[in-house]
Amino acid sequence: MIKLQKFGTFLALFLMITGLISCNDDSNTVPFEVNGDVFVSKKMVAADGETSIMYATAYYAFGNQPMMIAKVNPPTSAEFVLEAIDNTSKVYAAITGYSKTPPMAGNYIFTVLHEDVPHQTNDIVLYNDIDFTTITNVEMASETLTVEWDKETSEAESHRIYLINQDGDYIFKGPLLPTINSKYEVNTSSAGSWPSGYPNIGDVLTMELHAIVFEEGSTINDQEYNIQEIAISEQEITWE
Fold first, then answer.
1. Which N-terminal residues, if any, form the signal peptide (predicted)?
2. d(Cα 81, Cα 93) in Å, to the nearest integer?
3. Which label site among 44, 87, 138, 227 has the fewest CB atoms less than 10 Å from its CB?
């Protein structure tokens, strides 16, 4: 049985699609379309006195018009209902809690209801278990955080940086960075967003570096709808 996690705990995974909702067309003059995406996140998690690699799986159904309900049927378990993540009813999602159990590869079938008419789409999960990207340097000075990583050994197709405060709120979400990048600076004028406001001097934060692989065939225009897997490296910093 799949155990689903409350949204707040892993908000970063849902922030991956923030801003995409407004791009969808509300007009009833265009045909209804829905896209389903399943992706896997892995990170080092401390539990029961040890730190282990653990996995979480996120499920999304994106519609270009509001939907009434959305469900997903995994390849080896029972169908379950997704939850609307805001009042537009265009994006429904669910996420499992982190566990040592690797994700299930296979065909995930999404069923949604739009104006009382059912629609189906699917996503085939091929999980390759990419390595964590190695963080080579982290410096904090004059309210600018500089993060460097080893791009030569990274298996990622893109990287993204998040900052999390001690309440578990994701206060910074950076842009998707191409593979040529091996360094990024975070400050109040950086590209990206600060959904919870800027940090204060002395705040203890967690910096997450997300190594991202997209599904085969995705393009720069639709890659955020087609994430395959994420490996999260992290380090604690003090904002100063």
1. 1-24
2. 9
3. 87
